[in-house]
């Protein structure tokens, strides 16, 4: 599997979070980790994010490329990839289990999958934080039997399928990850055992009930692509 993976991380002013993710990548037992390109798609950070990322070049093949909104940054990184698989990670996650990446790639190869994701847990979250992420995990599980649902926190794609689906819709202003993942054939989608850890900052900025309401509206409008192109106020407040 060496040389089979490129990792893309969209980022903007993530100096407090990105090093945790990169450290967790360093701890992965995937044999090709040191040679895997890690593309940080930076959207004009002013807090030292770029310098923090490049500080890992002695342990990871980190490169910084121009980014933008998450969909723009992810596509920009994917355009530079030549590997069979592309893994999209959010800058505020970390992989606490050193076997996760290796197992996810093994599953992709063995099952000839188009997309794999994993569960999400909140680092030092409240009861309501944990409850909402548990709900997200449940919806991912349900989606594995109906219509695939994965978030940009961890999306491992077959690169050719990713582009066949059109990549991330750069016009989408909300739930661009769901908009893409629901186009994957459910037979080619799996949830890998394990989890990534993230923060509760989305809930802190938007509020738990508003996040629930936005999630509900996303499900209701699943067939209405125009809905995702409308500004739902997500990035302006939670970005």
UniProtKB/TrEMBL annotation:
The keyword Transferase applies. GO terms for molecular function: glycosyltransferase activity. Residues 6-165 form the Glycosyltransferase 2-like domain. It comes from the Bacteria. One of its GO terms (cellular component) is plasma membrane. InterPro entries: Glyco_trans_2-like, Nucleotide-diphossugar_trans. Keywords: Cell membrane, Glycosyltransferase, Membrane, Transferase. It is found in: Cell membrane. Transmembrane segments: none annotated. This is Glycosyltransferase involved in cell wall biosynthesis. It comes from Tunturiibacter lichenicola.
